[in-house]
Design brief:
284 residues; mainly alpha; 3 strands
Amino acid sequence: MANSERQPKAPSHPLSININRLRYYLLAPDEAILFDWLVVKQISFKYVDFHYSQLRIERETRIKRSRLESILTRFARDGFLATEVRTNPTTKGQVRYFRVSLCRLADAILLGKYIKPGSELMTHVLDYLCYHTIRQQMAWMKEEGLVDGEHPDFEEMRRHVEKMRPFYNRIYQGYLHYRDLLLRRPDSPRELLALFRQEKLPSHGDHLYLLALFARKYSTQEITAIVQNYFSAIYHEEIRPADMLGYLLYFVPADRMFPTAQIYLNCKSSVISLLEIIRERPLE
């Protein structure tokens, strides 16, 4: 296989608490342990929902029930963890399932609540999350039958991707405009400049499927509003996603929803409009 076709190499595992890494965590030690445990378990269970008993979690983490529930509540409130009690198909008993959204954690502003911003550990964890985020998205979509070549809607999805390409160019041009604005702004935060330092909008081949579904779900007018508000939020540091396209295309197959897109479709932004910037310098 040609080098250009090889899968990207997985980043080194930056998690697993030790005394050197712990000093960069902004969490209490037991919170840091559970944070790492959740991320590691989500990946080890092939990205899909997994179930664990409270007793087993306590045995592996040494965190007692009341404290465990308090930490889980905090992580759920922060938006990257979801839990649900379901019937175990094997035992027929009631068990709690966990879902960790790696995409949500790949937002540097959210992750900055847990790990010291600007630290080497922060950089490594973001790289690690970005690598696994797209794989989690694909695992969810395979579970729903959305990326199988024999799926009846597959060819239609590919046609929608072709419709999406002109607008993807708009997304890219808008990205360049915001980068230019940041470079001209004397008070531009170093972290935000680093986010926009790439020569092109970060993307992965697997985004093909997500772009197809995105183009299917939203009209051109809706996509315009979503992208306008999304880039405005990044520019004004409301969010700082490590993978800008991946974060925008965050998709929950079971609900057929793009949660990030829905947020920015419905918000009324008063900040600089992407469309105003485009009018200043028309797209080619």
